[in-house]
């Protein structure tokens, strides 16, 4: 027999195929080549395990960079690819490790490249957590992806992603996804399709589109300058919801400035000017005024200005007068009254404070007004 075809080293109990000097119990020597294409009966491999139908198992060494070796499950009759099964009876598989501790134990980094798949749904990683006879894949079974540190310094869990059915027994068909960070699962962020797309941070039962159980911090932002296209946010203390301030008519400004020019008034006197501003929605504050006519002045009498806004019925009214006098020649005058109109969502009404100063020009309140 040609020694290059089959060589037996009886002294060392070695067999060589394609070599006359086997260095191990069985050495098969061939030629470096790329794996054969599917549907090819002949092989480029160095060694083939052939079945009695159209499939086989090839072992070979690459001829191009980065070289290396391959194991390929080949289909000799069709271009259809075939599976390669490792440990079908059970047991762990290790890559870069001598003693794997799980079904697939990889020591080192991994790359999942879904870009080369031709499937319509390109699942870079497909994880199944529910299967008849094994599990429902629900919250009680606690399936997820765990990240941890085995370093002697601060060993233990780092973070975890949990997913599955929202049920704690059986399954409802409603799914959830949660994210935890820290030594124990805390589900800092929780999402589920059973609550109309709501997201919870610090809660597993979000009641609004974004439900935060705790404080919210916003860092430095770009200034709005003089832009009027902005909204003010307030918290509903009953529901906890954050809402944009707006009036029933759609006004989103919380502070509104308006000047009333009221002409041909009775001398200098306005007793009841109805602004038609709804007292349930707004508070009106008089910030300034101007009376355009001269007043009658007595040497023995000073007439202080009385001007304010008050509520009558459901609306705000304006009052303006110099008591005890009138405009010269009793002519009808003109007032300009400057008002600040404030959205009531940022105003809290405090009980009035009344105190007798006993003729003194100074005083001290008995305490801070209740409610502040």
Describe this structure in words.
It is a single chain. With 372 residues, the protein is mainly β. It has strands at residues 6-9, 14-17, 26-28, 47-50, 55-61, 69-75, 93-95, 104-106, 144-149, 156-165, 175-181, 189-192, 199-201, 210-212, 233-235, 242-244, 255-265, 270-278, 282-291, 306-312, 315-321, 333-343. The chain contains no helices and 22 strands. The chain is rod-shaped, with a radius of gyration of 43 Å. The strands form 7 sheets. The protein has a 6-stranded mixed beta sheet, with no helix packed on it. Strands 1-2-3 form a 3-stranded mixed beta sheet, with no helix packed on it. It has a 3-stranded antiparallel beta sheet with strand order 4-5-6, with no helix packed on it. It starts with 5 loop residues before the first strand and ends in a 29-residue tail after the last strand. Among the domains are: 132-212, no CATH class; 255-346.
């Amino acid at each position: 027999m040609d020694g290059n075809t089959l060589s037996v080293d009886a002294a060392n109990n070695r067999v060589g195929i394609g070599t006359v000097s086997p260095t191990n119990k069985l050495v098969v020597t061939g030629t470096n080549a790329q794996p054969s294409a599917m549907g090819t009966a002949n092989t480029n491999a160095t060694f083939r395990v052939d079945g009695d139908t159209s499939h086989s198992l090839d072992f070979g060494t690459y001829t191009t960079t980065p070289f290396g070796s391959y194991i390929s499950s080949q289909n000799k009759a069709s271009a259809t690819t075939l599976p390669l099964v490792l440990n079908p009876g059970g047991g762990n598989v290790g890559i870069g490790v001598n003693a794997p501790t799980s079904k697939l134990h990889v020591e080192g980094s991994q790359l999942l490249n879904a870009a080369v798949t031709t499937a319509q749904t390109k699942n870079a990683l497909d994880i199944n957590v529910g299967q008849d006879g094994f599990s429902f894949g629900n919250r009680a079974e606690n399936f997820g992806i765990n990240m941890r540190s085995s370093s002697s310094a601060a060993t233990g869990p780092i973070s975890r992603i949990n997913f599955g059915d929202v049920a704690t027994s059986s399954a409802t068909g409603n799914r959830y996804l949660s994210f935890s960070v820290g030594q124990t699962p805390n589900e800092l962020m929780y999402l589920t399709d059973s609550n109309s797309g709501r997201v919870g941070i610090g809660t597993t039962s979000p009641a609004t589109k974004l439900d935060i159980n705790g404080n919210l911090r916003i860092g430095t932002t770009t200034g709005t300058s003089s832009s009027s296209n902005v909204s003010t946010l307030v918290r509903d203390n009953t529901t906890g919801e954050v809402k944009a301030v707006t009036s029933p008519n759609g006004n989103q400004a919380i502070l509104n400035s308006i000047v009333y020019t009221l002409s041909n008034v009775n001398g200098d006197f306005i007793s009841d000017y109805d602004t038609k501003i709804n007292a349930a929605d707004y508070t009106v504050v008089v910030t300034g005024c101007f009376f355009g006519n001269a007043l009658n002045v007595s040497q023995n009498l000073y007439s202080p200005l009385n001007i304010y806004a008050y509520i009558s019925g459901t609306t705000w009214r304006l009052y303006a007068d110099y008591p005890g006098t009138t405009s010269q020649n009793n002519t009808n005058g003109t007032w300009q009254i400057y008002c600040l109109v404030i959205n009531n969502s940022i105003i809290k009404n405090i009980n009035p404070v009344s105190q007798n100063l006993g003729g003194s020009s100074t005083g001290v309140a008995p305490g801070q007004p209740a409610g502040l």
